[in-house]
Amino acid sequence: MNNLADHADHADLLIRATVHTLAPGQPPQRAIAVTDGRITALAAEPDGLDALIGPDTEVLNAPDATVLPAFDDTHTHLVMAAHSVHGVPVHRARDLAGFLDLIRERAATTPAGHWITTTVNWQEALLAEQRMPTTTELDAVTTDHPVLVRRGAYNMVLNSPALRLAGITEETEAPPGGVIERDAEGRMTGRLINRAIEPVERVLPRPGLAERVEGLRAASAAYASTGIGTVRDCAVPIEDLDVLDAARAEGALAVRVRALVSGFAARTREQVDALLDRMDDWRASGRDDDRLSLWGVKFGIDGGFEAGALEEHYEGQPCYHGHLLWEPEELVAAVDRVVERGWRVGVHAWGDRGLRVLLDVFEQVLKRRPGLAPGTLVVEHGGLARADQRARAVALGIPVTVQHPLLHDGALTLRRGWGEERTSAVFPLREWLDEGAELSAGSDFPIGPYGAMLSVWGMTTRDTTAGVLGPEHALARTEAIALHTVNAARLTGESAQRGSLRPGTLADLTLWPVDPLTCPVERLHDLRPTRTIVDGRTV
Question: What tens digit of pLDDT does each residue of 249-260 get?
């Protein structure tokens, strides 16, 4: 597809390589040109665009390399990654002694009374002891500082000073949908799960704007270094929209951001309306652009590894089926309120009971709003999706985001609660696609690691920290790549602008040292691009 007749000006960038455009039916091209942040031409021969070379054209002659669209991570937490940039790097520890030593080192250089927080992208099952630290162990490191050990979005362990600041005592009862963990003697371990973390969130000091922007600069560059050009951040606190806006203004966002505002604290009609009023103010201000835009609202119907709502009980816990975080009729009212105001909704559903109830909710909303635009309601995760539930989601036209990295890092923890059979059944990708689902892929960082080809490797091998699980659910590489590109752009409503490489589309692309479609599959696990380009600029 040589468009020289339409684009006589010189290109800013010309790449000679194997170009997989992902446009339907188009064979690989051998040259691609970029001008003013857009793809301007493709050619079937390496020298087919040479007439576009001018004195300022950057020419990359890489005959052994491969060009693909930049990837989307359709369910991740960039803001949380940015918060974690300056945390104690406990994700590097391999046992609790090393974990606690890292906190001890930070305490030695931190003024007394100042909070110490950790990185969030770690799993206790990957430590030698396969458990979290306790308040007693954290107190042995320091009681001169409040210490917050955070794993993912919904799990915390605190030392005694942090518990006091949050107002949590042995007499404190867990809120509905939350867990204050206790040991066999009934004493608090210091671990808080799901809604029990809310008192801590209220007392945590917030870093200044400059520090927040620098965190976003570092975190977004780290995403881009793996081949990701767009993130769908699923649970942005409403006040952090201004931080993202400031980062965009300073050129600190290396990736495009599609933000889902967190609705987890909005439980009443008044709270939902207050959240939507602030979102409407953003929309009215005209601040959405190609780099940063507000996608909608994120809710959650159930918990995660330890609290996902199941139809059958947890392993060894005959009376425990996980937690539903909403009464269904209340969630119907909340979701309906959001879509009435013209916003989209993504809802976390992890267990099969959680997914069943969520589909009931979505069905009720669709009955109230029969003209609702496709893609307005989205299932986030749909981890344990039974055949009848998949059929319902497809019939209702509900897109689903899936995250193999989440399964990869969490498999050992999940297997403890769900057993081998149910853990192996998580993310039935093959079935979803064969049955006609609108499927797209992400990481759910910090529970799973982000990375373009790391995710492709996982979806094609089904390998995890617990070994290969459910190989029958695996995808082909072309399908896995499409979930991060073509399908992802469809989810965000940007297929005309992104997702495949066509003249006129945004110049978001990646350059790989080998062809990810044909290289040995083991190579994908650690494969990084030599360049990630967003808006025609190497980021």
Answer: 999 999 999 999
N- to C-terminal Cα separation, the chain? 27
Q: How many alpha carbons lie under 13 Å from residue 248 in its C-beta half-sphere? A: 17
Which runs of E-coded beta strand occur in 20-78?
29-35, 38-43, 58-69, 71-76
d(CA 18, CA 485): 17
- Phi then psi for residue 292, to 5 deg, are -140, 125
Residue closest to 410 by CA, chosen among 134, 233, 100, 154: 154
* 145 Cβ contact list (under 8 Å, min separation 6): 107, 110, 112, 113, 114, 115, 116, 159, 161
**Whole-structure pTM value:** 0.90
Residue 452: closest CA among 477, 424, 421: 477
- Alpha-carbon gap, residue 323 to 326, rounded angstroms: 9
d(CA 71, CA 442): 9
- Domains annotated for the chain, with CATH where assigned, are 1-69+499-539 (2.30.40.10), 71-86+209-294 (3.30.110), 89-203 (3.10.310.70)
Tokens at residue 250, please?
């300073």
| Contact predicate 368/319, CB 8 Å | no
Say if residues 443 and 450 touch (Cβ distance below 8 Å): yes
Q: How far is CA 355 from CA 303, 345, 349, 351, 393, in A?
A: 11, 15, 5, 6, 10
Q: What is the mean pLDDT of the chain?
A: 95
Write the DSSP assignment of 205-229 as a string of letters: PPPPHHHHHHHHHHHHHHHHTTTEE
Distance from C-alpha of 295 to C-alpha of 338, rounded to nearest angstrom: 12
Under-70 pLDDT residues of the chain? 1-8
Q: What are the tens digits of pLDDT across the range 140-178?
A: 999 999 999 999 878 999 999 999 999 999 999 999 878
The span from the CA of 440 to the CA of 524, in Å, is 19
Q: What is the 3-state secondary structure (H, E, C) of 92-131?
A: HCCCHHHHHHHHHHHHHCCCCCCCEEECCCCCHHHCCCCC
In terms of Cβ atoms closer than 10 Å to its own Cβ (0-12, 13-18, 19+), residue 184 is exposed
Q: What is the pLDDT of residues 89-111, one digit of tens each?
A: 999 999 999 999 999 999 999 99
352: helix, strand or coil: helix
Among 188, 189, 196, smallest CA distance to 170 is for: 188
317 C-beta neighbours (distance < 10 Å), count: 10
Calpha distance 309→305 (Å, rounded): 10
